[in-house]
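Troubleshooting: if your tokenizer reports a length mismatch, compare your output against this known-good record of 137 residues.
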Amino acid sequence: MPRKPKTIVLDSWAIMSYLQGEPSAEKVADTIADAHEDNVPLLMSVVNAGEVWYIIARRTSEADADRSIRELKQLGIELVDAGWEIAQEAGRFKAKHKMSFADCFAAALAKQRKAHLVTGDQEFKQVEADVIINWLK
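Known-good structure output:
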């Protein structure tokens, strides 16, 4: 990580990597452990959590999806509701960039909280001028 973040936002790409044991899962696990050690809040938009939920529900089952969201909460990841300010900022990102709307919510939350966004999703290259990205790849 470039400098120690005061807050970390995890996007669905990072969480799916972690949950599925993909190559960058260890970096995600280290990020979570370091955040706990340094008392750095870990956040995720409910929109991105919903994305994780539907991907897992589609691949396996709703019960597995529910378990995965419980696991995120047990890891200390706070799910942040998408109020109007975050939704409006997500809309701004979507209006300017070719990104998924869910990714726009992760970027908007990171921008609002002045947080580092942890991802490996290359779509986020488009918002590097607005959001600090901690790349997993």
